[in-house]
Amino acid sequence: MPFEDAPHLVFWEVTKACPLTCKHCRANAIDKPLPGELTTEEGKKLLEEISQFGKVVVVFTGGDPLSRDDIFELMDYAKSLGLIVSIAPAPSYRLNEDTIKNIKNSALYMSISLDGYKPETHDWLRGFGNYRYAINGIKLGLKYGIQVQVNTLVWKRSYEELPYIAKLLKDLGVKVWEVFFLIPVGRGTLELDIPREKYKDVIDFLVEVSRYNIVVRTVEAPFFRRAKLEYKEVKNELIRKLKELLGESKSPVDKSILPTRDGAGVIFISYNGDIYPSGFLPLKLGNVREDRLIDVYRNSELLKMIKAGKLKGKCGICAFSNICGGSRARAYAVYGDPLAEDPACPY
């Protein structure tokens, strides 16, 4: 069973505080920290527990992790424990040159959200003026040698801009693109989502993007992995525009697979220490103030079933369940059952 004993990614929502008020945000971010936020010492204890998994990636996220005064102290401590450090700052005024230099000293990876090719597209979702902060943050991160990942939400207004975003990433020199598909939690509403019949077009497009020396990952769309393995050339408007902008690629599809899913290879700790399978699956498993994270990850009955692929509906009988397994968060959001089939799967 993949990731039976240790996750690949540990997400720690270090704070809810954030200068942005994004319309789709899972965190429902606010401008001030909430009561109950883990203290510096509690955070260090948590990092010590995470290190018991081995050399895993710990992602400092939020809200905006830069809202915490002790964020670099915590990141440096994680680094000293042998953890692989990543940070997901909000695209805001805080992403200046001094901050990027500090991130370079403390983290190996940084992810920045860019949710549209046009400034007005991104800013409608994230808030006025944030597009320039995102672009500047990406450029500064690359300038200082940080491995920068760009995160993009697939939503109604970004859909037609996806080929242009791919071209922009190539021009900037970004090597990793993580594409998020909506889950109806927080302010992420169905009104922002693209029609289900367009999911397959986006998936086929992203497979094609992987031929242009960009590592493509998806969040809450694990059926992308099946599309990579079963690659055959298809045509749609997104792919046509991509080839028009970047030319034909003779490179093969990147068929490497990391079969994580909510609660299998991924675990999430909220600002107050609550433990969840992922940031999009709001089923509390415990709290780090009372429970050992390693015990929760290894012994939770729900996580055991998810890791073992004991799923229902078409996900339960699919030949690709081990490498995909569907979005457990979407299954829960739609059916109230985290083991149900993924209603967005196009197969």
From TrEMBL:
Family matches, as PROSITE patterns: RADICAL_SAM (PS51918)
Keyword Iron: yes
InterPro entries, A to Z: Aldolase_TIM, Elp3/MiaA/NifB-like_rSAM, PqqE-like, Radical_SAM_PqqE_MftC-like, rSAM, rSAM_sf
Residues of the Radical SAM core domain: 4-217
Annotated CDD domains: Radical_SAM, SPASM_MftC-like
Keyword Metal-binding: yes
Cofactor(s) listed in the protein's UniProt record: [4Fe-4S] cluster
Alphabetized SMART domains for the sequence: Elp3
UniProt keyword annotations, A-Z: 4Fe-4S, Iron, Iron-sulfur, Metal-binding, S-adenosyl-L-methionine
Molecular function GO labels: 4 iron, 4 sulfur cluster binding; catalytic activity; metal ion binding
NCBIfam families: TIGR04053 family radical SAM/SPASM domain-containing protein (TIGR04053)
Descriptive protein name: Radical SAM core domain-containing protein
Gene name of the record: ST0127
